[in-house]
Write a structure and sequence with these properties.
Elements (H helix, E strand, L loop, with lengths): L1 E10 L2 E10 L2 E5 L6 H9 L6 E6 L2 E5 L4 E2 L2 H4 L1 E4 L11 H8 L6 H14 L15 H13 L5 E5 L7 H18 L3 E5 L2 H7 L2 E6 L2 E7 H6 L4 H6 L4 E9 L2 E4 L4 E4 L9 E4 L5 E2 L5 E11 L4 E7 L8 E5 L1 H7 L3 E5 L6 E3 L2 H6 L1
Parallel strand pairs: 3-9, 3-10, 7-8, 8-9
Antiparallel strand pairs: 1-2, 1-4, 4-5, 5-6, 10-11, 12-13, 12-15, 13-14, 15-21, 16-20, 17-18, 17-20, 18-19
Helix pairs in contact: 3-5
């Protein structure tokens, strides 16, 4: 119930150099478009072949360049859910799911497994329909049923909700979480959506420029992302380059302000703070700012603030409740960047690629 991946692959100017492992959990590969996360999934599935390295799932070596091992996709027993679900358009729901069960040679066992998975996914009444006659959610359930009836060693989900509207996405996330729990083995989820990752994953590997930038438990990665890419991909929108000016002091060059920080800052190249962690008033890292823009969100307000006497500084975003902003409504505010909320960040793969 584990996966180990340590592979390299070069595609033109792009280099994939990925290493991670997981066991009996949902590991999300979180990254921007083109970072190599979907390519990693294809290498695990056997659709793409790495130039070198090793892939082991459940104690079975799927790929080992040194030993000359490269199992076919069929031999790997990997369940890959594509973005478009890849259902056979000329087959009914029943026929699609039967296609996933063809490894089982005993016809009675095969039919029993097909019927059981169709019942568990609520697809029995749709058995005679073709993919074009199904909703997006029904297509996804059919694709998952086809995968699970094949008894895969690992479940791979490549942006499974990207084609769905927000309401349907949230409902199907709940269904897929249930599927993963009942699967009981390792699942790899590829996504660029930090909220989706937070809801779905147990652990996160942040991928940037073809490399794992930071990897760890979900809560640990969100609370202390360690690198600039990790912070940005987990939703931190206030990030500035820094230089160290004291043992516990840095100068944020883009915000044009000196800040006290916790711990030594020798390796810090950036500092970040999440918009909801900015405070009005306070006693530390307080600076007078001018309001440059007020952006209204459905249930909150984002106030953009620039140090009052520094016209070239990059504004800092502060997100707050509409009720609080309606009470304040000022042209200038004293804002506080709490020491405990500041993220000291390394360059990570961004720095290596520059």
């Amino acid at each position: 119930m584990s996966v180990f991946v340590d592979i390299k692959k070069k595609l033109g100017a792009f280099s994939l150099d990925i290493r991670f492992e997981a066991g009996g959990e949902t590991l999300a590969l979180l990254g921007a478009s083109g970072c190599g996360k979907s390519m990693t999934l294809k290498c695990v599935a056997g659709i793409e072949t790495p130039d070198s390295g090793r892939i082991v799932v459940d104690g079975v070596t799927l790929f080992d360049s040194e030993r000359g091992v490269n199992l076919s996709p069929q031999e790997r027993r990997v369940g890959l859910l594509f973005q478009n679900y890849a259902l056979f358009p000329n087959m009914t729901v029943l026929q699609n799911i039967r296609a996933g069960a063809k490894r089982e040679k005993d016809r009675a066992k095969r039919e029993r497994a097909v019927r059981q998975v169709m019942d568990s996914f609520g697809l029995s009444e749709l058995s005679g329909r073709y993919p074009r006659q199904l909703s997006g959610g029904q297509q996804q359930r059919t694709a998952l049923a086809r995968i699970l009836v094949s008894a895969p060693r690992i479940l791979l989900l490549d942006e499974p909700f990207s084609a769905l509207d927000s309401h349907l996405r949230f409902r199907l996330e709940q269904e897929v979480r249930g599927v993963i729990r009942s699967f009981g083995k390792t699942a790899l989820l590829v996504s660029h959506d930090r909220d989706e990752v937070y809801r779905m994953a147990d652990a996160i590997a942040v991928i940037s420029h073809g490399r794992v930038d930071v990897c760890g438990g979900r809560d640990a990665v969100f609370s202390a992302p360690r690198t600039r890419a990790g912070a940005a991909l987990t939703g931190c929108k206030n990030i500035s380059a820094v230089r160290r000016v004291g043992e516990n002091r840095v100068y944020a060059s883009e915000w044009e302000m000196a800040l006290s920080v916790t711990g030594p800052a020798e390796n810090a190249r950036y500092v970040g703070i999440r918009m909801h962690d900015v405070r009005v008033g306070g006693t530390e890292n307080v600076i007078r700012c001018r309001v440059t823009e007020v952006i209204e969100n459905p249930f909150s307000v984002t106030v953009m603030l620039r140090p009052a006497d520094r016209e070239r500084a990059v504004p800092i975003g502060w997100e707050t409740e509409k009720r609080i902003w309606n009470q304040l409504r000022a042209d200038e505010l004293d804002i506080c960047l709490p020491v405990e909320s500041l993220l000291l960040l390394e360059g990570g793969a961004d720095a290596e690629s520059s």
